[in-house]
Protein backbone atom coordinates (compact mmCIF):
# COMPACT_ATOMS: atom_id res chain seq x y z
CA UNK A 1 0.00 0.00 0.00
CA UNK A 2 1.11 3.54 -0.66
CA UNK A 3 2.32 5.33 2.41
CA UNK A 4 0.53 8.58 3.10
CA UNK A 5 2.50 11.72 3.80
CA UNK A 6 2.68 11.92 7.63
CA UNK A 7 2.01 15.67 7.66
CA UNK A 8 -1.01 15.25 5.40
CA UNK A 9 -2.23 12.29 7.44
CA UNK A 10 -2.07 14.23 10.70
CA UNK A 11 -3.77 17.32 9.26
CA UNK A 12 -6.43 15.16 7.62
CA UNK A 13 -7.29 13.33 10.82
CA UNK A 14 -7.60 16.50 12.86
CA UNK A 15 -9.64 18.19 10.14
CA UNK A 16 -12.24 15.64 9.11
CA UNK A 17 -13.07 14.61 12.68
CA UNK A 18 -14.32 18.06 13.57
CA UNK A 19 -18.01 18.94 13.50
CA UNK A 20 -17.09 22.14 11.69
CA UNK A 21 -16.06 20.19 8.57
CA UNK A 22 -19.37 18.35 8.37
CA UNK A 23 -21.25 21.61 8.91
CA UNK A 24 -19.33 23.34 6.10
CA UNK A 25 -20.07 20.50 3.65
CA UNK A 26 -23.76 20.43 4.62
CA UNK A 27 -24.18 24.20 4.40
CA UNK A 28 -22.26 24.54 1.13
CA UNK A 29 -24.15 21.80 -0.69
CA UNK A 30 -27.44 22.85 0.89
CA UNK A 31 -27.11 26.36 -0.53
CA UNK A 32 -26.09 25.04 -3.94
CA UNK A 33 -29.06 22.65 -3.95
CA UNK A 34 -31.50 25.41 -3.03
CA UNK A 35 -30.04 27.61 -5.73
CA UNK A 36 -30.26 24.82 -8.31
CA UNK A 37 -33.87 23.95 -7.44
CA UNK A 38 -34.88 27.62 -7.52
CA UNK A 39 -33.21 28.04 -10.91
CA UNK A 40 -35.09 25.00 -12.21
CA UNK A 41 -38.36 26.41 -10.94
CA UNK A 42 -37.75 29.75 -12.65
CA UNK A 43 -36.70 28.05 -15.88
CA UNK A 44 -39.59 25.59 -16.19
CA UNK A 45 -42.52 26.79 -14.08
CA UNK A 46 -42.22 30.56 -14.33
CA UNK A 47 -41.26 30.74 -18.01
CA UNK A 48 -43.90 28.18 -18.99
CA UNK A 49 -46.64 29.93 -17.02
CA UNK A 50 -45.91 33.51 -18.11
CA UNK A 51 -43.94 33.06 -21.29
CA UNK A 52 -45.78 30.11 -22.79
CA UNK A 53 -42.53 28.27 -23.57
CA UNK A 54 -39.45 26.91 -21.87
CA UNK A 55 -35.95 27.97 -22.87
CA UNK A 56 -33.86 24.83 -22.41
CA UNK A 57 -30.66 26.78 -23.05
CA UNK A 58 -31.17 28.30 -19.58
CA UNK A 59 -30.22 24.94 -18.05
CA UNK A 60 -26.71 25.30 -19.44
CA UNK A 61 -26.54 28.79 -17.98
CA UNK A 62 -27.49 27.32 -14.58
CA UNK A 63 -24.55 24.91 -14.88
CA UNK A 64 -22.23 27.76 -15.89
CA UNK A 65 -23.31 29.91 -12.93
CA UNK A 66 -22.92 27.09 -10.39
CA UNK A 67 -19.51 26.11 -11.81
CA UNK A 68 -18.33 29.73 -11.79
CA UNK A 69 -19.54 30.13 -8.19
CA UNK A 70 -17.56 27.10 -7.07
CA UNK A 71 -14.52 28.33 -8.95
CA UNK A 72 -14.70 31.73 -7.22
CA UNK A 73 -14.91 29.90 -3.89
CA UNK A 74 -11.66 28.12 -4.72
CA UNK A 75 -9.96 31.40 -5.65
CA UNK A 76 -10.92 33.18 -2.45
CA UNK A 77 -10.60 30.27 -0.01
CA UNK A 78 -7.35 28.53 -0.98
CA UNK A 79 -5.09 31.53 -0.14
CA UNK A 80 -6.56 31.72 3.35
CA UNK A 81 -5.98 27.99 3.85
CA UNK A 82 -2.41 27.84 2.54
CA UNK A 83 -0.87 31.18 3.54
CA UNK A 84 -0.62 30.12 7.19
CA UNK A 85 0.55 26.56 6.53
CA UNK A 86 4.26 27.21 7.22
CA UNK A 87 4.09 30.66 8.78
CA UNK A 88 1.57 29.35 11.31
CA UNK A 89 3.96 26.59 12.37
CA UNK A 90 6.69 29.20 12.71
CA UNK A 91 4.49 31.44 14.86
CA UNK A 92 3.57 28.50 17.12
CA UNK A 93 7.30 27.66 17.33
CA UNK A 94 6.66 24.12 16.13
CA UNK A 95 8.42 24.43 12.76
CA UNK A 96 11.84 23.63 14.23
CA UNK A 97 10.42 20.49 15.84
CA UNK A 98 8.89 19.47 12.51
CA UNK A 99 12.23 19.97 10.76
CA UNK A 100 14.01 17.66 13.22
CA UNK A 101 11.90 14.68 12.08
CA UNK A 102 12.88 12.31 9.28
CA UNK A 103 10.65 14.22 6.89
CA UNK A 104 12.39 16.20 4.17
CA UNK A 105 11.40 19.84 3.51
CA UNK A 106 9.77 18.70 0.28
CA UNK A 107 7.59 16.19 2.15
CA UNK A 108 6.57 18.86 4.64
CA UNK A 109 5.66 21.27 1.85
CA UNK A 110 3.66 18.68 -0.09
CA UNK A 111 1.87 17.51 3.05
CA UNK A 112 0.88 21.06 3.96
CA UNK A 113 -0.30 21.77 0.41
CA UNK A 114 -2.36 18.58 0.21
CA UNK A 115 -3.99 19.14 3.58
CA UNK A 116 -4.80 22.77 2.77
CA UNK A 117 -6.53 22.12 -0.55
CA UNK A 118 -8.24 18.86 0.45
CA UNK A 119 -11.27 20.71 1.80
CA UNK A 120 -11.80 22.59 -1.45
CA UNK A 121 -11.48 19.41 -3.52
CA UNK A 122 -13.86 17.61 -1.13
CA UNK A 123 -16.43 20.39 -1.51
CA UNK A 124 -16.10 20.27 -5.29
CA UNK A 125 -16.63 16.51 -5.43
CA UNK A 126 -19.51 16.61 -2.94
CA UNK A 127 -21.27 19.21 -5.09
CA UNK A 128 -21.37 16.94 -8.16
CA UNK A 129 -24.96 15.79 -7.41
CA UNK A 130 -26.08 19.42 -7.52
CA UNK A 131 -24.31 19.99 -10.82
CA UNK A 132 -25.84 16.74 -12.08
CA UNK A 133 -29.28 18.40 -12.01
CA UNK A 134 -28.62 19.43 -15.61
CA UNK A 135 -28.55 15.73 -16.56
CA UNK A 136 -32.35 15.77 -16.38
CA UNK A 137 -32.38 17.98 -19.47
CA UNK A 138 -29.05 17.25 -21.14
CA UNK A 139 -26.32 19.34 -22.67
CA UNK A 140 -23.59 18.51 -20.13
CA UNK A 141 -21.73 15.19 -20.15
CA UNK A 142 -19.59 13.25 -17.70
CA UNK A 143 -16.56 14.46 -19.63
CA UNK A 144 -17.56 18.04 -18.81
CA UNK A 145 -17.80 17.16 -15.13
CA UNK A 146 -14.36 15.55 -15.28
CA UNK A 147 -12.94 18.70 -16.88
CA UNK A 148 -14.50 20.83 -14.17
CA UNK A 149 -12.96 18.64 -11.47
CA UNK A 150 -9.61 18.92 -13.25
CA UNK A 151 -10.00 22.71 -13.32
CA UNK A 152 -10.70 22.81 -9.57
CA UNK A 153 -7.70 20.60 -8.76
CA UNK A 154 -5.31 22.52 -11.03
CA UNK A 155 -6.46 25.89 -9.69
CA UNK A 156 -6.25 24.71 -6.08
CA UNK A 157 -2.69 23.48 -6.64
CA UNK A 158 -1.76 26.66 -8.54
CA UNK A 159 -3.11 29.13 -5.98
CA UNK A 160 -2.10 26.84 -3.11
CA UNK A 161 1.53 26.73 -4.26
CA UNK A 162 1.58 30.53 -4.28
CA UNK A 163 0.25 30.60 -0.71
CA UNK A 164 2.76 27.94 0.42
CA UNK A 165 5.63 29.87 -1.17
CA UNK A 166 4.80 33.11 0.62
CA UNK A 167 4.11 31.19 3.81
CA UNK A 168 7.65 29.80 3.66
CA UNK A 169 9.08 33.18 2.66
CA UNK A 170 7.48 35.34 5.37
CA UNK A 171 7.58 34.79 9.11
CA UNK A 172 4.06 36.10 9.82
CA UNK A 173 0.79 34.61 8.62
CA UNK A 174 -0.69 38.06 8.05
CA UNK A 175 2.11 39.07 5.67
CA UNK A 176 1.85 35.79 3.77
CA UNK A 177 -1.93 36.06 3.46
CA UNK A 178 -1.90 39.67 2.24
CA UNK A 179 0.84 38.94 -0.29
CA UNK A 180 -0.96 35.84 -1.56
CA UNK A 181 -4.22 37.70 -2.10
CA UNK A 182 -2.28 40.54 -3.74
CA UNK A 183 -0.62 38.11 -6.13
CA UNK A 184 -4.00 36.54 -6.91
CA UNK A 185 -5.38 40.00 -7.68
CA UNK A 186 -2.47 40.65 -10.03
CA UNK A 187 -3.05 37.33 -11.79
CA UNK A 188 -6.79 37.82 -12.24
CA UNK A 189 -7.07 41.58 -12.74
CA UNK A 190 -3.50 42.74 -13.30
CA UNK A 191 -2.83 40.62 -16.39
CA UNK A 192 -5.92 42.05 -18.09
CA UNK A 193 -5.04 45.54 -16.86
CA UNK A 194 -1.51 45.35 -18.31
CA UNK A 195 -2.75 44.31 -21.74
CA UNK A 196 -5.43 47.01 -21.63
CA UNK A 197 -2.85 49.72 -20.84
CA UNK A 198 -0.56 48.48 -23.63
CA UNK A 199 -3.53 48.41 -25.99
CA UNK A 200 -4.46 52.01 -25.11
CA UNK A 201 -0.88 53.23 -25.63
CA UNK A 202 -0.56 51.48 -28.99
CA UNK A 203 -3.97 52.77 -30.08
CA UNK A 204 -2.95 56.35 -29.22
CA UNK A 205 0.19 55.98 -31.33
CA UNK A 206 -1.84 54.65 -34.26
CA UNK A 207 -4.33 57.51 -33.92
CA UNK A 208 -1.51 60.08 -33.99
CA UNK A 209 0.02 58.48 -37.08
CA UNK A 210 -3.30 58.29 -38.94
CA UNK A 211 -4.64 61.63 -37.77
CA UNK A 212 -5.11 62.75 -41.36
CA UNK A 213 -5.87 59.33 -42.80
CA UNK A 214 -9.23 57.84 -43.56
CA UNK A 215 -8.47 54.22 -42.66
CA UNK A 216 -8.96 53.35 -38.99
CA UNK A 217 -6.60 50.78 -37.53
CA UNK A 218 -7.02 48.90 -34.26
CA UNK A 219 -4.08 48.18 -32.00
CA UNK A 220 -2.73 44.67 -31.55
CA UNK A 221 -0.87 43.87 -28.32
CA UNK A 222 0.52 40.70 -29.88
CA UNK A 223 2.22 38.22 -27.54
CA UNK A 224 1.24 40.25 -24.47
CA UNK A 225 -2.06 38.36 -24.60
CA UNK A 226 -0.15 35.22 -23.62
CA UNK A 227 -0.03 36.71 -20.10
CA UNK A 228 -3.64 35.62 -19.80
CA UNK A 229 -2.49 31.99 -19.81
CA UNK A 230 -1.50 32.43 -16.13
CA UNK A 231 -4.90 33.97 -15.33
CA UNK A 232 -7.04 31.23 -13.69
CA UNK A 233 -10.27 33.16 -14.35
CA UNK A 234 -9.63 33.16 -18.11
CA UNK A 235 -8.91 29.43 -17.91
CA UNK A 236 -12.28 28.86 -16.24
CA UNK A 237 -14.03 31.02 -18.83
CA UNK A 238 -12.47 29.08 -21.70
CA UNK A 239 -13.57 25.75 -20.22
CA UNK A 240 -17.17 26.79 -19.51
CA UNK A 241 -17.62 28.39 -22.93
CA UNK A 242 -16.38 25.28 -24.70
CA UNK A 243 -18.66 23.06 -22.62
CA UNK A 244 -21.87 25.01 -23.12
CA UNK A 245 -21.11 25.62 -26.79
CA UNK A 246 -20.86 29.41 -26.92
CA UNK A 247 -17.18 30.31 -27.15
CA UNK A 248 -18.01 33.91 -28.04
CA UNK A 249 -17.12 35.94 -24.95
CA UNK A 250 -13.49 34.81 -24.74
CA UNK A 251 -12.96 35.14 -28.48
CA UNK A 252 -14.48 38.61 -28.47
CA UNK A 253 -12.33 39.58 -25.49
CA UNK A 254 -9.16 38.33 -27.17
CA UNK A 255 -10.07 39.96 -30.46
CA UNK A 256 -10.61 43.33 -28.79
CA UNK A 257 -6.96 43.38 -27.70
CA UNK A 258 -5.25 41.67 -30.61
CA UNK A 259 -4.75 38.38 -32.36
CA UNK A 260 -3.78 35.02 -30.87
CA UNK A 261 -2.75 31.88 -32.70
CA UNK A 262 -5.76 29.74 -33.54
CA UNK A 263 -4.01 26.69 -32.11
CA UNK A 264 -3.51 28.43 -28.76
CA UNK A 265 -7.07 29.75 -28.76
CA UNK A 266 -8.57 26.31 -29.44
CA UNK A 267 -6.40 24.64 -26.77
CA UNK A 268 -6.43 27.45 -24.23
CA UNK A 269 -7.67 25.32 -21.33
CA UNK A 270 -5.02 22.61 -21.83
CA UNK A 271 -2.11 25.02 -22.41
CA UNK A 272 -2.95 27.27 -19.48
CA UNK A 273 -3.46 24.28 -17.16
CA UNK A 274 -0.05 22.82 -18.05
CA UNK A 275 1.61 26.22 -17.65
CA UNK A 276 0.01 26.81 -14.25
CA UNK A 277 1.07 23.36 -13.04
CA UNK A 278 4.61 24.12 -14.22
CA UNK A 279 4.62 27.36 -12.22
CA UNK A 280 3.32 25.42 -9.21
CA UNK A 281 6.21 22.94 -9.43
CA UNK A 282 8.72 25.79 -9.50
CA UNK A 283 7.12 27.55 -6.52
CA UNK A 284 6.96 24.33 -4.48
CA UNK A 285 10.63 23.64 -5.23
CA UNK A 286 11.56 27.15 -4.09
CA UNK A 287 9.46 26.67 -0.95
CA UNK A 288 11.36 23.49 -0.15
CA UNK A 289 14.66 25.34 -0.54
CA UNK A 290 13.46 28.13 1.75
CA UNK A 291 12.49 25.57 4.35
CA UNK A 292 15.71 23.56 4.14
CA UNK A 293 17.70 24.15 7.38
CA UNK A 294 20.90 22.79 5.79
CA UNK A 295 20.80 25.50 3.14
CA UNK A 296 20.48 28.18 5.81
CA UNK A 297 23.38 26.67 7.73
CA UNK A 298 25.60 26.72 4.62
CA UNK A 299 24.77 30.39 4.02
CA UNK A 300 25.71 31.23 7.63
CA UNK A 301 29.03 29.41 7.31
CA UNK A 302 29.82 31.29 4.08
CA UNK A 303 29.05 34.61 5.78
CA UNK A 304 31.47 33.80 8.60
Which geometry do the CA atoms define?
Answer: flat
Order of helices and strands: HHHHHHHHHHHHHH
Estimated structural class: mainly alpha
Average pLDDT taken over every residue: 79
The rounded distance between the terminal residues' Cα atoms is: 47 Å
Count of alpha/pi helices: 14
Helix content: over 70%
Main pleated-sheet profile:
none
Low-confidence stretches: 297-304
| Number of DSSP E strands | 0
**Whole-number total of structural domains:** 1
User: Into which percentage range does the β-strand content fall?
Assistant: under 5%
Radius of gyration, in Å, reads 23 Å
Protein described:
There is one protein chain. With 304 residues, the chain is mainly α. The protein has one domain (32-303). Helices cover 77% and strands 0% of the residues. It contains 14 helices and no strands. Helix 2 (19-51) packs antiparallel against helix 3 (57-82), helix 3 runs parallel beside helix 8 (142-169) and helix 3 runs antiparallel to helix 10 (232-244). The chain starts with 5 loop residues before the first helix and ends with a helix. GO terms for molecular function: ABC-type transporter activity. It holds the Pfam family ABC2_membrane_2.
Which features does this protein show?
304 residues; mainly alpha; ABC-type transporter activity
